[in-house]
Amino acid sequence: MGTTFDETLASGISLIESGEYARAVDAFRGCIGLEPDNAEGYFYLGEALSESGKGDEAIAALKKGLELAPEDLDGLTALGDVYFEAGKHKDALACYRKVTELQPKDCDGYVSMGLVYNAMERAEEALKAFERALELDPGNVFALNAMGDLYYGLGENDKAIAAYQKGIEIDPDDATARFNLGELYYDMDELEKAEQVTLEAIRLDPDFTMSYLTLGNICIDQDRMADAIGYFESYLKKEHSPQAREMIAEVKAVVEGLKEELRG
């Protein structure tokens, strides 16, 4: 760990990138000790705590940072994200709305608001937020993916496919749009299409862990149990997020069940 604020901050950021969240928390606490009036230390501490699954502590750190820098867009967005993850939708909306007030031409705040409205099943308001984002930036893939998810949830599959495909046309290297499209095809029972686009998502981003779950489920539906086990084990090998603990436990149980089935 470095001895100056900047050196310690750089060390903490490196630890976050390598998934060493507990050590990153210690590094950012060190930053705060060195410069207690520097909001950046609190913002990064909030990120590390959030990644560690400590949502309440993350909120406290981010709020402290915003006391020091109340108009910091990244800090407001980060706090909104933690609130959203915790299901505190009204608080999340307040953060994202302030972002749009401070930066009216930045479409990401509108996308974030739309995601919250969608989670609250307020589809009309979600659609308006996504449309506003796309007015500001018609090529924003984040907004197109979010709009696709909205239509997907509403059962408007053709519109969802169109949104995802437009995102792919704009950014052929975007793994998220392909994963979302694969999930939709899977739900539509178009398994070959689902497998094709999900494999492409993995090619683009081998660490996109949810893609392995989709592929495993496709293989189960096609009675390809050995392949399913392989994909689920790839998920278990790559997924280490504290937030995924329950899913990891479920997948381990599925793998054991499939292996038992193959043993006959």
How many domains?
A: 4
Count of helical stretches: 15
Main sheet: strands, sense, barrel: none
CATH superfamily of the largest domain: Tetratricopeptide repeat domain
- Sheet-strand content, in percent, reads under 5%
Shape: globular
Q: CATH class of the largest domain, anyone?
A: Mainly Alpha
Secondary structure: helix percent: over 70%
- As residue ranges, the low-confidence spans are none
CATH topology of the largest domain: Serine Threonine Protein Phosphatase 5, Tetratricopeptide repeat
In whole angstroms, the N-to-C terminal distance is 53 Å
Name the average pLDDT. Answer: 95
Instruction: Give the number of DSSP strands.
Output: 0
* Alpha-beta content class: mainly alpha
The H/E string reads HHHHHHHHHHHHHHH
> Rounded to an integer, what's the Rg over CA atoms?
21 Å
Which CATH architecture of the largest domain is right? Answer: Alpha Horseshoe
